[in-house]
Design goal:
This protein folds into 2 domains: 197 residues, Rossmann fold (3-Layer(aba) Sandwich); 171 residues, Glycogen Phosphorylase B (Rossmann fold). It contains 14 helices and 13 strands. The two termini are 17 Å apart. The strands form 2 sheets. The protein has a 7-stranded parallel beta sheet with strand order 3-2-1-4-5-6-7, sandwiched between helices. A 6-stranded parallel beta sheet has the order 10-9-8-11-12-13, sandwiched between helices. α7 links the parallel β8 and β9.
């Protein structure tokens, strides 16, 4: 029986983002798969039902709000080591990247680095965050006894950028939760989100990396060519307002602007309804470590138009309606027109997408994580010999 500490910093009640969702689902599966181990979930917020992962999981709040670079250093390198030592942890599992540099080098730690967008385009981030990520993540990659990521594309990128052997990096993919299923009638979502009109959907943070400006430009061209569907944008700013790098809409036509519906953050049930009610997901970021909205759309029977870059062709596995260059708004618009005009191709894409989504599951991802934890505990046993 092992004593395993878990990083739950990104489990944020009511405000779950991509890595937090990955953390929640993978940890739930890990705890179910390892009933003989004892777990300690470390959080930085008041107790919530979200943290109660199982009877053999103790929850411990660290009274340092890990929400700024300097506070993250304090959280991981000072507060966390105190807890790990007092609880007599055998290993530390962090599904977000940062691990504790305050623990001895022989203490087993697992890290999941999702992508390296901050290495490729640091200007997308506030300066303090860019410095933190670029300065600290190479250290996390080197210190981790077991290093994981979420796609083969990210695996290649991490190996190349940080000089880590690719074969030593374990891939644990994202998946869609059980709420994402085909809907019988799209009209319910349309009435709520788009004044009863059919709509394309964007899901993601309102951040330059997601290329929302390019999508809006493409939507303007789609409208100018006679396209009749609206656009629903689901998401909020990634950073606090004082740090946010703004997304500037290129739309100037009032009639076109009125067809863009900004609905903010949706909880998982409302998001599943929005995805299932969409005519298509249009997701054209510059870089993605995985792209969970793509799998959620495919699981919902919603066709996907997405970027032809980074992990997205890998995740789509040939099931996308179209893979498009994120910098070519005309080609994105052409794909949107084609999707509305080619119902047979669209139907084939829906079937292919459902099959592709079925290849991802949180159960399988949890099993992959448990296998990685086995390797981690082997490191723990070796360090004690």
């Amino acid at each position: 029986m092992a004593r395993i500490a878990l990083n739950g910093r990104l489990l944020v009640p009511g405000k779950m983002e991509g890595i937090g969702i990955f953390t929640l689902h993978c940890l739930k599966e890990l705890v179910k798969l390892r009933p003989n181990d004892t777990f300690l979930l470390l959080v930085d917020r008041p107790d919530d039902v979200l943290f109660h992962l199982g009877d053999h999981v103790e929850v411990r709040r660290i009274w340092v709000p890990g929400r700024r670079p300097w506070l993250l250093r304090l959280w991981f390198d000072a507060a966390v080591p105190l807890v790990l030592r007092s609880w007599r942890a055998d290993a530390f599992v962090s599904l977000e990247g940062p691990i504790s540099l305050g623990m001895p080098g022989n203490f087993p730690q697992l890290s999941v680095i999702h992508d390296l967008n901050f290495e490729h385009c640091p200007e997308w981030l506030p300066r303090t965050w860019a410095r933190y990520y670029r300065g600290m993540f190479p250290q996390f990659a080197r210190k981790a006894h077991v290093l994981c990521t979420v796609s083969e594309a990210s695996k290649r990128d991490i190996a190349h950028r940080y000089g880590v052997e690719a074969q030593s990096i374990h891939v644990i993919p994202n998946a869609a939760s059980s709420e994402f299923v085909p809907v019988k009638d799209r009209r319910a979502a349309q009435e709520i989100l788009s004044n009863g009109r059919p709509y394309f959907l964007f899901v993601g943070s309102l951040h330059p990396r997601k290329n929302l400006e390019g999508l809006l430009e493409a939507f303007g061209k789609y409208c100018s060519r006679g396209g009749e569907w609206d656009l629903v944008v689901v998401g909020v700013a990634m950073w606090p307002q004082s740090e946010e790098i703004s997304v500037v809409s290129p739309l100037r036509d009032v009639d076109v602007e009125s067809r863009v519906h900004w609905v903010g953050r949706l909880n998982e049930g409302a998001l599943a309804q929005a995805v299932g009610g969409a005519e298509a997901l249009v997701f054209v970021p510059w870089l993605e470590g995985f792209g969970i909205p793509v799998v959620e759309a495919m699981a919902s029977g919603t066709p996907v138009i997405c970027s032809d870059t980074s992990s997205l062709p890998e995740v789509c596995g040939g099931a996308a309606f179209a893979l498009v260059p994120p910098g070519d708004s005309s080609e994105i618009a052409a794909a949107m027109i084609a999707l509305a005009q080619e119902p047979e191709r669209r139907a084939r894409c829906v079937e292919a997408g459902l099959a592709r989504a079925g290849m991802f599951s949180w159960t399988q991802s949890g099993m992959k994580l448990s296998t990685a934890v086995n390797l981690l505990l082997t490191s723990s046993q070796s360090s004690h010999d």
